[in-house]
User: Fold Putative tolB like transporter from Candidatus Neomicrothrix parvicella RN1.
Amino acid sequence: MAVAGLVGMVILAVVLVIVGVKRFDRPAAVPESFAPPGNLPTATALGADTLAFDSDRTGNFEIFAASIDGDVSAPKQLTDDPSLDSWWPRISPDRRTILFYQAPAGVHDVDATKVSLWAMGSDGRGLVQLRPAGLDGWTLQGHAEWHPDGTSLVMLGGSRLNPQVFVTDPLGQRPQQLTDRGGRNIDPAFSADGKRVWFVGCPKSICSDADQEIYSIELNPSGDGPASEPVRHTDDDVRDNDPYESPDGSMLGWLSQMETGGIGVWDVRVADIGDGGRFTSKPRRVVNDSAVTSRPQWSADGTSIVTHRLEPGRDGFDLVRIDVATGEIEPLGFNSSANDEYPSL
Assistant:
């Protein structure tokens, strides 16, 4: 009886764990009224010197656009809904459309189960929802990025415990799973030639933050599936995020947490890359200080990156441009007392 009772308790415990996981990983209900749009909204192309970013200068997070070369323009607000946080703008390759995420005000980027993917014209008009929370049975979603020719998107999606990388059409529909690995598979972005996807993964299914490493996977000729197994490029005890390839395909830049404790010390690291994306130099830090420097967005000529940065002792993130060779930092001059972040060039 004692053995039978013990077995029964074990079975009950397993059942409770399974039920708990299922509840924890339950996707949101997709509104019955949702229908994907037939086309992306477009407007006059943004100038090459214009970036999009999000800011909480109005109270909640909204999307703004501003010129950053020559006479720095006052940011133009593109979204306006105090009940929502709008963030993560991504300018399309033709610069006529902007992707972004929305979540209830106050959620911002801290809960990927509550976000939905949207698109608008580059002037802020024609707002359409591409992916509501819960679509395709995904519990979470995020990190949407354009293919260099604008014909597809790459993003993370799936379960809380085991998110994967997917390629979709430009409307965020018809997801094709690109990775099938344990642990976290997050932060995807296309290579400069669109033939490879960079992402962050873990070597084992049990994954801590320090286990996050940089991987890449080659795409098949149709660009909607893998042509080979993922390749691991970093191997250290440093948490890595947000890999982005330079426009000429010669370098990779990514975000690394160099020190833990509190908010930590974060920096951009870069490495030269060759055929197949393989590193041809050791990773090096770009700024090498004690601040929080966030994900890199490359300039068209590959000599600088734009990012958001939190200086020691300050309360909010500011947008800066950083020379990749020297680490010299140039504030972009918006002089906001709020958080300006997630720039897209």
Q: What stands out?
A: Confidence is low (pLDDT under 50) at residues 13-19.
